[in-house]
Amino acid sequence: xxxxxxxxxxxxxxxxxxxxxxxxxxxxxxxxxxxxxxxxxxxxxxxxxxxxxxxxxxxxxxxxxxxxxxxxxxxxxxxxxxxxxxxxxxxxxxxxxxxxxxxxxxxxxxxxxxxxxxxxxxxxxxxxxxxxxxxxxxxxxxxxxxxxxxxxxxxxxxxxxxxxxxxxxxxxxxxxxxxxxxxxxxxxxxxxxxxxxxxxxxxxxxxxxxxxxxxxxxxxxxxxxxxxxxxxxxxxxxxxxxxxxxxxx
Length: 249
Description:
Elements: E1 24-29, E2 32-36, E3 45-50, E4 54-60, E5 63-64, E6 67-68, E7 88-91, E8 102-103, E9 108-110, E10 113-116, E11 128-133, E12 138-142, H1 145-149, E13 154-160, E14 171-179, E15 189-198, H2 200-209, E16 214-217, E17 226-228, E18 231-234, E19 242-248
Antiparallel strand pairs: 1-2, 2-3, 3-15, 4-19, 5-6, 6-8, 7-17, 7-19, 9-10, 9-13, 11-12, 11-13, 13-16, 14-15, 14-16, 17-18
């Protein structure tokens, strides 16, 4: 019988199935790994940082009276006094795009200097978080002014992974996660997720596949930016007040 649709003649080869794209690993520098694959939807990138070998630095524009000046993304990577440049740089906290200088939505503390507790704390009262770090440790916790007033020299306000920011749409996203490889309740490994098109659940799930135990959402959309070894992978469509740079020790 020849009634079965889709039958393939014996002399016709069956086309090979294309393999599903996967993220490919690259070592950027000691303590810094990158996973990426341009063939995947949204061009996702995952960066893992071992804080015993590399460090995070909050980089910002000029600060005055609780507001921060914006700069082009590449300007944040300009060499500092030690002529150091970041191995990786990613966009940071939420802000008001149209104010120049701008307020910071959920707070910012940089190099032990409190810049602001944040102007938007009533927007997501149960979903606002802080990311606080020193040279060797990092933690994501529910928002508290005590975190900004405490010993951690750097604190960046963020949102929970399920906060309502067009959650199901495939938008440019920046997420951060932490994990405890030593199982001693101290988070010393950082994960970043950056994509030109992902839902919030996809971003969170990706970081959890890489072992993230804590996850938070940084600014996204037009602010999404990623630079690796001086090359801009994702260019923000707006100027930014603050970024996070990854430097080798």
